[in-house]
Amino acid sequence: MKTIFIKTPLGPAALTGDKNGVSSISVRDIAADEVIYDEVIPEELEDCVYQLREYFSGERHEFDLKLNPSGSDFQKKVWDALQEISYGKTMSYLELSKKLGDVKAIRAVAGANARNPLWIVVPCHRVIGNDGSLTGYAGGLWRKKWLLEHESPYKQQSLF
């Protein structure tokens, strides 16, 4: 298993994977200057680094990576459903539960969403509260807001 750190606009990100695919992508709440960034990217993670850089530059709206997250069958089912939420779109936890066939599973869906090990690539940030509010995000609500604004087709104009 290989792990590297890359710089992102939201802080240092740790990427882990091997020949079987990317197993985790997570953002870290540590100062960027406290991280030792890898100069050499392991072959197993090259596509992931490249595609994340494209995403942050606004050139990529979909990821095409071999993924290998660890989780229960139910969690993997939720994570698969998350990947069907299009770039620039959102879905409520209730809508996601309905899509998965069990409106009563809303808490379990929210729990699986919270345990998503593949930050951005499996877009858990696109799931919002039923009233349109930003609710829980493992990376912090400010990051969720940033990601949704980054993906929004409606860019806020500066008034000054």
Question: What can you tell me about this protein's structure?
Answer:
With 160 residues, the chain is an alpha+beta fold. Helix content is 31%, strand content 14%. The protein contains five helices and five strands. The strands form two sheets. The chain has a three-stranded antiparallel beta sheet with strand order 1-2-3, with no helix packed on it. A hairpin with a 6-residue loop joins β1 (2-6) and β2. The longest helix is centred in the N-terminal third of the chain and has 12 residues, at 46-57. It is globular. The mean pLDDT is 91.
Characterize this entry briefly.
The chain is an alpha+beta fold and 160 residues long. Helix content is 31%, strand content 14%. The strands form two sheets. It has a three-stranded antiparallel sheet, with no helix packed on it. Strands 4-5 form a two-stranded parallel sheet.
Tell me the β content.
Answer: 5-15%
Helix count from the secondary structure assignment? 5
- CA-CA gap between termini: 49 Å
Structural class: alpha+beta
Overall morphology: globular
In the predicted model, the low-confidence regions spanning at least 5 consecutive residues are none
Mean pLDDT: 91
Biggest sheet, in brief? 3 strands, antiparallel
The spatial strand order of the largest sheet comes to 1-2-3
Rounded to an integer in angstroms, the radius of gyration calculated over CA atoms is: 16 Å
Element-level helix/strand string: EEEHHEHHEH
Please count the beta strands (DSSP E, at least 2 residues each): 5
Helix content: 25-40%
